[in-house]
Fold this sequence. Notes:
2 domains, PH-domain like
Amino acid sequence: MQNTEYQCFKNVLKEAFELCFTTPYKAKYDDIELEKFRKDLAKESASIGLTTLKNHRKLKEDDNLPHTSTLNIYCMYCVKKGSKKITNEEWKMVLEEHKRNVEKEEKTDDQEATKEERKNKNKMSTNVWYTPKKYGFFNIWRQEDEGTLFIDYTEKQLKFESEETASLIIHQEEMTQVIHTKMPGDLSNNWVKVTYKGKKEAWFQDRPPKPNSLKRTRGMDNLLGGSEDLYKAIYKLFKMD
């Protein structure tokens, strides 16, 4: 098990106290004893106040650690007293090792967070056709309702906007089914059928921008397939917890 900065500091402080006092480290020291220890520390470096010394003794794992220069005072004291366990150089090496471990963990966390953000990134699809009901066999010429589909994974909803449809919003909790299928009046293309609020339907199909295409007007630009990415994006919204 790798030492944390907190564990290392507690070990240094314990060593310093045991070198100074014959009583156990966990024992309670009165102010007179602690003052002697403080003065002894001050001979080597900058003075550590009595209150600070007491606070160090009560340090908890979730507290802010003292500055490295302060920790080194204890290390220097241990070296002076002939400690075989702790040296100034060893303490610095432990700090550097811990720092590298922390940076490695933070980097891993950042990478995982980036993956999660990328995974849940909201999606916007333009050139999407929408119809509230399936086309019949005789709907060869269709009234186009083409607009932009916004899939919001944060708000857990999809929104379709066009000139014909001002704003259609379907919340994820209202969805009962999302399938990739065909309709009787358009057997050559795949559509995404969203069933919501009981029996209501919303059919979507992505369309490459071909404004002058007769095939596009007749709904044949995605011949023998299409809308796979759109289906995956909407289905992902549907299955979110």
